[in-house]
Amino acid sequence: MIQLFKSISLIILGINIFFIIGCAHKQSLYAQWGKQLSYTDTVRTIEDVSLMLGTPPYKCDNIEPTPKIGIFCTDPEVPKIEKVFPNGAAWRAGMQAGEIILSIGGIKVNTCKEALNALQSSLQFDEKIIIQTNKNIYSLMPKRPKEAKQCYWDISAGTVGQTSGSAYINRYGGAAGHSGSQYVRFFRASCRFYDGVSMGCQANWQE
Predict the structure, then answer these.
(1) Out of 79, 135, 169, 204, which could bridge 115 as a Cys pair, Cβ 3.0 to 4.6 Å?
(2) Are 192 and 150 in contact (CB under 8 A)?
(3) What does the alpha-carbon distance between residue 46 and residue 60 come to, in Å, rounded to a whole number?
(4) Sign of the Cα pseudo-torsion (108, 115, 65, 83, in order)
(5) Neighbouring-strand partners of residue 107
(6) Model confidence at 26, in pLDDT bands (50, 70, 90)?
(7) At CA 120, angle to CA 149 and CA 116, rounded to 5?
(8) Which domains does the chain have, with CATH numbers?
(9) pTM (two decimals)
(10) Which of 194, 172, 196 is nearest to 185 (CA)?
């Protein structure tokens, strides 16, 4: 009987360890949303973002669009294209992720920052610009969208109170004890849409 008890205890302990490890590696819902919104190679509409977050935007403002070719580049050393936005000018011209930009509008570039500066100084709506990469020479023309909007989502999940090293969630705004603290859980996102298609999103959250 004693041996059986030890075996059962080890099994239960093993289950607990597995559960703790599994939870430690599981990404929170807010982090999942933030990661999905950061993807630049996914076509999203306002309805798509609203469906993912489970709520419509609380407001959408008309904005003045700025010309973009639709590439993503962050390497501080090499102007390497990491992603290409679907339906953007670069995508329509056939540019591919992995290509290295050599010049923009005749201006040689050595870093992503130089590439961004060259685009900002020479890119215009409905005007061609020549971009040379290590693979090809492209002629691009960013089109002015008929509609440009910035939409905002704000999701509140109530107050979290912390006291004596533990935490509880009060969805009705209740406070923690006098010796504890409290903060509000939230997820906020804003996305820019040209002709109904997302051109990029930003998100921040607290949980």
Answers:
(1) 79
(2) yes
(3) 10
(4) positive
(5) 104
(6) low
(7) 105
(8) 29-60+146-206 (no CATH), 66-140 (2.30.42.10)
(9) 0.67
(10) 172
